[in-house]
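Standup notes, structure subgroup. Blocker cleared on the magnesium ion input:
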Amino acid sequence: MILVVDDDNVIRSSLSLLLKRAGYEAMAVPGADEALDVVRRETPQLILMDMNFSLSTDGRDGLTLLRQVKIFRPDVPVILMTAWGSIQLAVDGIKAGAFDFITKPWNNQALLQRIDTAIQLSSSASRNDNNSDVFDRCGIIGESEQLQEVLSTVKRIAGTDASVLVTGESGTGKELIAEAIHRNSRRRNEAFVKVNLGGISQSLFESEMFGHKKGSFTGAVSDRQGRFELADKGSIFLDEIGDLDKSCQVKLLRVLQDRTYEVLGDSRQRRTDVRVVCATNADLPAMVADGRFREDLFYRINLITLYLPPLRERVDDIPLLVNHFIGTMCKTNGIRPVAVSNEAMQYMKTLPYPGNIRELKNLVERTLLISDGIRITLEDVRASHGSTVSQRTAGAPLSDGMTLDDMERQAIIQAIARYKGNMSQVAVSLGISRGALYRRMEKYGIPSV
Ligand SMILES: Nc1ncnc2c1ncn2[C@@H]1O[C@H](COP(=O)(O)OP(=O)(O)OP(=O)(O)O)[C@@H](O)[C@H]1O
Ligand SMILES: [Mg+2]
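Run returned:
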């Protein structure tokens, strides 16, 4: 099957017709998302890809799609099409792994000939699949289709050095997935360095990331190794990347772009060889759209995007997770495994879990404590879940009918709205740490944005 990617439906249908007449099976899709869906599911013989299929006409979206396709299907030849025939774009495309390049309008015969050549050459090239390697799940529990899809992508991309952006609501397992990428890569025996960018102040960013020399600024009492140096040859996990302010975004872009940096107080350029995995629960495309996140940095970090669906969309995993959490907790406390009644399990499958798997884990922990140690009943779950719900409304009423808890809850909700979900700013404005903020959000059942 030959896959055609072009946003112009006249071109899609005329190319499909041309290909079918020449005896090929053809499938035509309008954009990058659809193309990636096809490529994830099956292996086309060849891909004919328009370079200008989106609003931007500089071909960058085409290049991004090309790189993504090459990661999923390195052996599938790609022929690029552009209406402008710009040489630079052709060069960039070929560098990024395209097989060939044509300009619109095309000559039917010439196009068919090039397609033929590309297919012949690629089918004679030896295929080497190393997907049979053992996959380390890193303790990731769940058999739902949604999770399986994420894991199969992890499997496919772990071995490459492609930068990965892991997205999803709070508590969906982004950090676990980042770790699984590292553990299944050829860098597995090297360092996996985690950095919570939401917890690093702007003034200390360079010192934290790149290190400093003794005396390079007041307070630099000794030399310090930066995270990029610690992660050399391994992977670096940049968590909460959406919290990075713009001045730090530029500094990060530079090291991600050419893998060089300078230690504060030492002008010598250093190189770092790292695989970069980022995570966020912010909506980065929206932040790019309104200018809060650099577009170039966004393209740099998300060659591959892995989206972790919320727990409420993979309820089939809930019983597996519940039993897993009970198992590990009973083991660490040296008690016999506790059973769960059917009704209790059913009930747990219906809860909304704004805090996702982290919330489920907490719920199981609390329920285990109030259970009789033999069996968890529906009442146990109701009681422990209800205790968090009632905490939201408990407390002494104030003159206007609001409790202290209500006011705290209100303040958090307002701050989130005011700072458009930037959790560092929310925490600073409320005068609490991010950890404390998340704990309170969980307590009041405020979903993270
Ligand atoms: N599929 C899973 N199987 C077992 N445990 C899981 C799974 N997913 C998440 N967890 C557990 O849930 C908790 C939250 O996961 P993790 O820290 O990876 O989430 P996150 O998406 O990074 O959250 P946040 O956005 O708040 O940083 C952790 O204790 C983790 O071990
Ligand atoms: Mg996390």
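Discussed briefly. The first strand starts at residue 2 and ends at 5.
Next: hand off to the docking folks.
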